[in-house]
Design goal:
Length: 479
């Protein structure tokens, strides 16, 4: 619980700001620097993979239409727009595939507190490019953002989403931290930026809610909220003030989003960095689907299973996974947003594709495929209380038409801190996402630049390397 005796001396936002400013690149452990660069590469692969998706195209078109001064590059293009427009359009690409990283903490059964920290990367790239920040400065700013996100989410007693709010509601804090660091704000200014941004940018949970069909807004929500934190930092730099007690104050973050300040429980600083607890995704699907999908693909590949071999599939897993990804509205999804959140569809897709679930596996044809629909009808979800505290671990049991019973449990799917993806696998993921948009030598250049980002004098040097093939020409595009 928040210590009210300390309240008179330092607000929670002020303490978070000071902690964010105390992070120095030269003092970061080697493994933290390395993992930050890998997380950047991972997020950029997601963005390139979503380049052609309709919501991403729309956001880039609007960004160009309302782009203002050309100071920040749209990922995959050579066009430059305003910082705000670049953040929103680029984050939509990072988020669309639901393939980007995640940080979450199991709370009570059926509830987790989580966020997607890499949704803050577009803010670091846009502000960094405008301010000509070095790779080292961007790395340190991202570490500070990941730590801020982690500390806030960890402190929530039951998480934000169970209270009806979107997990991206932490992103104004991350945006304020990133921009605050890259703009040279002091702790007081950064605290004001947190107050300005977070008081004006709270997301409703309907964009990620059970019982509601998913839509395009799922992809843009985090970017809109992160951008408010960045815009707030520019205001704060000029002396604009915000509510310092944005978290613990009356009708602030804890009171309004968590139903009371007692539900924001300040935790002691961990021995490691929250960034090191972040999970990458091996499959382009919601985070708690990763475990059962890993187990299913192993069974399919190890036993050479085909759709006609399946009599029944039982997924025994945490209550949160059953409720969130077993939502009847998403059982037979009609779009990517719903498909990657459906445990039913993802299981059927894994069987149909022979265990090879990649971004290109999602299509209108797949959503209407009668084979997938028949498999969906054979999938049962079962709550296993023993898995609540170790989400996304599952037990998958497949009963075949010839009477075999095959079972697999995966506690730590690929991409989790206990089972990290290798640099080679990260490159493979980039290739998976880039498809025919980039030649192999360009992919190699992007990978090498990301993994050596700390030697880059200006982060703007990274952006032209991300331009994809077959771009359409746009009025005002740079030659």
């Amino acid at each position: 619980m928040f210590d009210h005796q300390k309240e008179a001396f330092m607000s929670i936002a002020r303490e978070l700001s000071e902690a964010a400013l105390n992070i120095r690149y030269d003092n970061l452990p080697t493994e933290v620097i390395r993992e930050t660069k890998r997380l950047i590469l991972d997020a950029l692969s997601c963005a390139i993979g979503a380049f052609d998706a309709e919501p991403c195209r729309i956001c880039r078109e609007v960004a160009r239409e309302h782009g203002g001064a050309g100071v920040a590059t749209l990922i995959g293009e050579r066009d430059k727009v305003s910082v705000s427009q670049a953040i929103i359009a680029n984050e939509t690409m990072v988020r669309y595939l639901d393939f980007n990283d995640v940080l979450y903490f199991p709370k009570s059964p059926g509830k987790i507190g989580g966020a997607h920290p890499s949704d803050a990367l577009p803010a670091a790239l846009a502000v960094g490019e405008r301010e000509h920040a070095s790779g080292r400065e961007v790395i340190a700013a991202l570490v500070a953002a990941y730590e801020t996100i982690g500390r806030i989410v960890d402190a929530t007693a039951e998480g934000i989403t169970p209270m009806g709010f979107h997990h991206g509601s932490v992103m104004p804090f991350a945006g304020a931290v990133i921009a605050g660091r890259l703009l040279g704000l002091d702790a007081g200014q950064m605290t004001n930026a947190m107050g300005i941004g977070a008081s004006a940018a709270i997301g409703l949970g309907i964009n990620d809610a059970e019982g509601e069909e998913y839509n395009n807004t799922k992809n843009i929500a985090d970017g809109l909220m992160a951008e408010r934190g960045v815009f707030a930092a520019y205001l704060a730099r000029r002396g604009f003030t915000g509510p310092e007690r944005i978290i613990e104050g009356n009708k602030g973050f804890a009171h309004s989003l968590l139903r009371g300040v007692e539900n924001y429980i300040v935790k002691p600083l961990p021995n490691d960095y929250y960034l090191m607890r972040t999970k990458m995704k091996f499959f382009p699907t919601e985070s708690t689907n990763q475990g059962h999908l890993a187990a299913t693909t192993l069974l399919v590949t190890e036993h050479g299973l085909k759709p006609d071999d399946i009599a029944e599939v039982v997924l025994r897993m945490s209550k949160r996974t059953v409720v969130h990804n077993g939502d009847p509205v998403k059982k037979y999804p009609r779009n990517k947003e719903g498909a990657d959140h459906s445990a039913y569809f993802m299981t059927a897709l894994a069987i149909v594709t022979g265990g090879c679930v990649v971004p290109s596996s999602f299509s209108d044809a797949a959503y209407a495929d009668p084979v997938i629909h028949r498999l969906i009808d054979k999938v049962q979800l079962e709550h296993g209380p023993e898995y609540d505290a170790i989400t996304p671990a599952p037990l998958v049991t497949i009963r075949t038409t010839d009477g075999r019973v095959l079972a697999k449990r995966v506690d730590h799917p690929r991409g989790t801190p206990e089972n990290r993806m290798s640099d080679s696998e990260l490159r493979d993921k980039f290739v998976e996402c880039a498809g025919e948009r980039m030649p192999s030598d360009q992919i190699d250049q992007v990978v090498e630049t990301c993994l050596a980002l700390d030697v880059l004098d200006d982060i703007g040097g990274l952006m032209p390397l991300l331009a994809v093939r077959f771009q359409h020409s746009h009025p005002g595009s740079a030659s």
